[in-house]
Write a structure and sequence with these properties.
alpha/beta, six-stranded mixed β-sheet
Length: about 220
């Protein structure tokens, strides 16, 4: 989809989840833990670039995490990558770097809350999804003030879910209503006087390999 030129009141925000890391395959919580892209993640990022080659993207913004920046650089070689702290991943605090099976066994109550009522949890030493939702609202407000007709933003699963929730006016328990795979492409169109419209979500048709991470 390409936004028609000449309509300055309509803009497209293309949301890209970073490519796969070994931690995704191994069931490890990442949060703010720095982990590199796996070879497959690098391949996914290049496939994203091919899929978006004709999208008319004029600016690329990324979470400052290395896996997101690497995805942006592989997807859009030669373009300047803006690093934006509002797109930084959910801070999982003490859960970062821990295997999900370990957390489930050691903290069954907290794990159950994460699976059933994630909007109620505050990660020990980290933040809550409400914190990320507020960051998402701030980012979207800034996006609507930009001049570019088409902009790509590379971020993380939790952040993109909150961006979708904020864009669609959702609140509370919406987190698990969206599913986003590594290397997926999601599109929002914003129009003055109308707000955001979700035009596609979790597009993975371009990916040569796909491993789904459910929780």
């Amino acid at each position: 989809m390409t936004i028609p030129a000449g309509n300055g009141s309509r803009r497209e925000l293309i949301l890209i989840r970073h490519g796969e890391t070994h931690s995704n395959r191994e069931g490890v919580f990442r949060g703010r833990l720095e982990v590199p892209l796996s070879p497959m993640g690098e391949e996914q990022a290049r496939a994203v670039g091919t899929a978006l080659a004709d999208s008319g993207i004029r600016a690329v913004i990324s979470s400052p995490m290395k896996r997101a920046v690497a995805t942006a650089e592989e997807s859009f070689p030669g373009m300047r990558i803006e690093k934006e702290s509002l797109l930084n991943n959910l801070d999982l605090g003490d859960w970062s770097g821990r295997r999900k099976t370990e957390i489930r066994k050691e903290f069954p109550g907290e794990w159950e809350r994460w699976i059933r009522r994630p909007h109620e949890i505050v990660f020990p030493g980290g933040e809550s999804l409400a914190d990320v939702h507020r960051r998402a609202q701030d980012f979207l407000a800034r996006f609507t003030c930009r001049e570019e007709i088409s902009l790509a933003a590379v971020s993380h699963r939790s952040v993109i879910k909150c961006l979708l929730g904020a864009a669609l006016g959702l609140a509370g328990d919406y987190f698990w209503k969206f599913h986003l795979d590594n290397g997926s492409i999601t599109r929002l169109v914003w129009e003055a006087g109308r707000g955001f419209t979700l035009t596609s979500m979790n597009d993975t048709r371009h990916l040569p390999h796909l491993v789904t991470e459910w929780y």
